[in-house]
Amino acid sequence: MSDRNGSKRSLYDVLGVNKSNSCNEIKKVYFKLARTHHPDKGGDPELFKEILRASEVLTDERKRQLYDESGIIEGENGVTEGSGGNPFQGGGFPFPFEVNINDLFGGMFGNPPLQRGPLRKGKKPAPIIQTINITLEQFYLGHNFEININRSSFCTACDHSGAKVKETCRACNGRGTISQNVQMGPMIMHTTGPCIECQTKGERILEKCEVCSGTGFLQDIRNLSVKISPGTRPGETYIFPEVCSDHPAFERPGDAHIAIAEDTNDPAFKYFKRGGDRLLNLETTIALSLSEALIGCVVKIDGHPGYDEGLFVKIPPSFQGDKYCLSGFGMPIPGNIGKYGDLFITIDVVISPMERTLFTTKGSEVLTPIFEDKIRAFTCSKESIQTDLFLHKV
User: Fold this and answer.
1) Which residues does 275 contact at the CB level (< 8 Å), separation at least 6?
2) How many separate domains does the chain show?
3) SS3 281
4) Reported pTM
5) CA distance 84 to 67
6) Does residue 378 lie within any of the structural domains?
7) 363 and 309 in one domain?
8) 271 sits in which H/E element
9) Fewer CB in 10 Å around end: N or C, the chain?
């Protein structure tokens, strides 16, 4: 990757950005370059490959740090993920954060309930779902974040019994339950209940397991890495198999489902909503004054995730409810680099009292010669026409 003089260009030079730019800023520059240099739009395929390669490195915190420190690009020259650095660094999302798994994923991860005799285990518990809210910009640019969860796993040293040395419970003979006859008046009732001596386990601990301190469980941390691609739809669910705590009632731990949703506190969602096939279009409404609607004007649309400085659009003379389409200014299409959905703009005409006065006086004089022959004719006498109208506001 060299310039015309043969000198090697850095990845920052390829995108025209500085080392001080954030990953999100670099993503926005990349999207603008992709619109221009994509081969489908007549761009140079080799140049586009360089732009894509530079973006993949500089928008990933870990890959970027490796490149800044050593000039090495992960995946090239034998360098692969995990060959160095902390694999859990990166993001910029308000995560990573420590999660109490009992609070986050329900009480099933706390101390297991007592078993009442031998139970037939299920294969695995139902999946636990956690919803994460993200902004429109994060949907547009894509985002990575990680969740660190605390989980309980079976202690293999004691086969999760909690005992280094144990014996069969003499009270229940290892059954975990005690049967007895109870005299109730003239009748004798046969009852079966849990063994208190061994807490229904059928065994008594003589010496606690030193590894788990007699609990039968060990605590560890599991990392969930969620990678959201540009254009991902809300409601997308990322499945992490068998990452929840071990549970004595099941053969395998449960799955964790991380669902992505729109952050309703993000101001961008007040101006834009997603629609159309696969929610790839953006929709917004623009308020125009009567003067702007009659003549047309240039408007600045704020809040578009791809344009920090605002998106400027020329609106032609319009009427209330007119809807315009700006092709290619919607959400990125997943799996199609450089391609986007559409932006739909609906016109809302707001008439001020001053404009109403001007229109009913001078405006009427100007428009009468143009539209006079288009006005409906009347057959009654002028004296029978009622003219004492007044504006009634609802």
Assistant:
1) 281, 282, 283, 344
2) 4
3) strand
4) 0.65
5) 12
6) no
7) yes
8) helix 268-271
9) C
